[in-house]
Amino acid sequence: MADQKLGIWKFFDVTHQFHSVLNPISNTKIDELIELLNLKPQAAVLDIACGKGEILARIAERYTISGVGVDISPFFVADAKQKLKQRVPNSRIEILNIDGADYKPDRQFDLSMCIGASWIYKGHRETLRALKSMTKPSGLILVGEPFWLKEPEDAYLTAASETIDDFGTHYENVLAGTEEDLLLLYTLVSNQDDWDRYTALRWYSTARFVEENKDDPDVTEIVKRVDHEKATYLQWGRDTVGWAIYLFKNLDTNL
To answer: Considering the entire predicted model, what is its pTM?
Structure first.
């Protein structure tokens, strides 16, 4: 987490100025995934940690949906609202600026998503359980989660402030779903180019921010943290951590 002097949501905003999707996945793969969702007209969609609302907007452009997007960052919520207003002004999608863990819906959804933010529910399996409780029987659950490409070195874990138990393997991520009575329909796995683009774009965004905001009181802290993340990624993370999106079907008919 960021230093107390630097709000973490400001840090994420600064380092993601040039990202539309805040995860290491290509636009081509996202569009392919959205096509495979095959949502029925008037489907209800939930996106926990919706970020700038790009995936919600693309789904709304492809299908006639209603829905809710939830994000704790006031920066990203503002971006999401503006994006939806501009691109799908007639969509019935509500954006809420709250912690996803505090969102308690009064209905179930045809598609529930939490892509790249399982920390909200304290883990991958717990995220699947939370989304399952908010998803209709036979509905879809979409999650994005890191996985270990290989056993991480101790030096990497120390540098990244992570433990080996923070993630599983790609297989273990899938197994967690099947053990929760979910049927795996599809996976999208990020390749090296996806990761490099996502990560390097954060460096570029930071450099642009520093150039344009030299008097910002948080510049020193932002640069320090990004430099540390850059070195950690290049030395270890690039060969150690993978990332995938998992599409499951809810098989539980006893909700």
So the answer is: 0.94
